[in-house]
Amino acid sequence: MEVDNEVRLLLRFYKDVSQNTDVVIQKFIDFKQQKNPNYSLKISDNHVWIFINGERKKYYSPHLHLELEKSNENETHIRGLFGPDPTLWTFFMFLHFIIAGVFLIFCGILYTHYTLKNAITTDYTILSLLVISWFMLYFIARKIRYKGNDQMQELEKLFNKIIAT
C-alpha cells in the first residue's frame, strides 16, 4: 500500500475472501487465543481490531479495524481501515475543535472591530496564526502516518497471514 501518494490521513482497503464470514471470524478468534505478545485483537460481532503491543508500540503505532460483511453464503467482503491510536486521535480532534472555536471567536471580534472602525491588524494576525496552526496539525498528522507506515504494512501482512490459514 503506497501512502505517500495518498491525501487521506486514514488509509482504507477492501478485500473479498472466498470463505464464510463465520469461518473468517473463527480464524481471528483462534489467533487471539494463541496469545501473541506483539499483537492484541478485539472482536465484537463482525468487527475486528488489531493492535500492536509491547515495546514496539509507539505513539504513532497504528491499529487496523476490519469490518466483515457477508457477500453471499461462501464469500466475505472485508473493509479495512488503518487508524492512529484512539488517544492520539482524540487529542488531535480536541486541538482542531479548540482552534476552530478560537477562530470563530476572533472572526466575531474582527467583525466588531471592523464595524467600529478600530484597528484590525491584530485580529488578522491571530486569524492567520490559527490557519497556520490548522495546516501544521495536518502536516504533523501526515508525519505520524509516515512514521507508522512500516507498522501498517506489518499489520496488513499479519491480517493476510490470519486469513490465509
Automatic annotation (TrEMBL):
Keywords assigned? Membrane, Transmembrane, Transmembrane helix
Q: Which residues cross the membrane?
A: 88-112, 124-141
Name by which UniProt lists this protein: GTP-binding protein
* Protein's organism: Flavobacterium agrisoli
